[in-house]
Amino acid sequence: MRVSPRQRTGARTLRAGPLAVPFVVAGVVPTVLGPTLAGPALDPAVRIPVGLLLALVGAWSTADAVDRVYLRQNTPLGDRPPDHLVTGGSYRILRNPMAAGMTLLLLGESLLWSAASIAGWAAVVLTVSYVTARRIEEPGLLRTFGAAYTDYRRAVPAWFPLPRRTRELRAPSRRNEAPR
Q1: pTM of the predicted model as reported, rounded to 2 decimal places
Q2: Cβ neighbours for 87, distance < 8 A, ≥ 6 positions apart
Q3: Per-residue confidence at 174, pLDDT binned at 50, 70, 90?
Q4: Residue 91: pLDDT band with limits 50, 70, 90
Q5: Among the record's GO biological process terms, what is one (predicted)?
Q6: Kindly report the CA angle at 95 between 151 and 169, in degrees rounded to 5?
């Protein structure tokens, strides 16, 4: 197998595809939807800080997930699992940090713009992400990574973070295994 100089040095290339999806979902669509259906008139002293917090946490989670899955390895968009099982960064907290982050980002935008239409779009994005994860991604990861994915799935929640102690209790115990 031929190895390019870029692969030998470990240099990463910026691929537009993985960046286009979050840009459209969290940028273009909310810009179009924002003015269409106003949300409830909430106090800006609450709406703006909460919206900013949700948007920033969501943007970080989405960016971290895109970087780890699509930019650090040669993973095509959705047609096959990544080269290696990603369990670091935001994937230590949730199995689906990209979808959860995108949903938080959209909910933050809905508060910042006071736009119920963006909250509705967040519900659509979460629903599509959930169905895709359950029917396509998880079976593919299980086939590709087997027991490693089963252990990861048992230890890390899919959508809602758990306190650290709860995550430790869910993780498989290694104490009773025979030494290797």
Answers
A1: 0.78
A2: 152, 156
A3: very low
A4: very high
A5: methylation
A6: 50
